[in-house]
Structures are given as C-alpha cells and as structure tokens.
Write a structure and sequence with these properties.
- By secondary structure, the chain is an alpha+beta fold.
- The chain has one domain.
- It is 19% helix and 41% strand.
- The chain is globular and about 30 Å long.
Length: 68
C-alpha cells in the first residue's frame, strides 16, 4: 500500500472559515456553519474550483459576516 500526501489549505472568506484539500486525485472543500447549524462539503476538479465553490456556498448560505 502506498501512502498519498494530502494537501490541505484553510482559508477565511467573508468571515467564515473553510477547508480545501486534495485526496486521491480529487479536490474537496468543507465549511461548518457556526452555532451547530450544520455544514457543507463538496468535490471539484481543481483547487481553484473547490475554492470558488466554497466561497459561493458561503455567499448563498447566509452565514457570512455573522448573518445566520
């Protein structure tokens, strides 16, 4: 069994933190809504696409800038 290195980046967009990482050739992203309101996870073909999708999710989830 060969080990694969996981690439992980943490970022903040509009006051909400999210994580982007690569595993087994796919880029994933996740964000956790504050105060136990759940979260979102997605997959994308590239790091840039994963970052855009996470930012889009933040913009359309109502959690940015402290708004719920």
């Amino acid at each position: 069994m060969t080990e694969q290195m996981v690439i992980r980046t943490e970022a903040v967009y509009s006051g909400v933190s999210f994580v982007v990482w690569k595993g087994q050739g796919t880029w994933f992203w996740s964000l956790v809504r504050p105060y136990g309101q759940g979260g979102t996870i997605g997959a994308a073909a590239s790091k840039a696409e994963a970052t855009r999708e996470a930012q889009f999710a933040i913009e359309h989830s109502g959690v940015s800038d402290g708004v719920e």
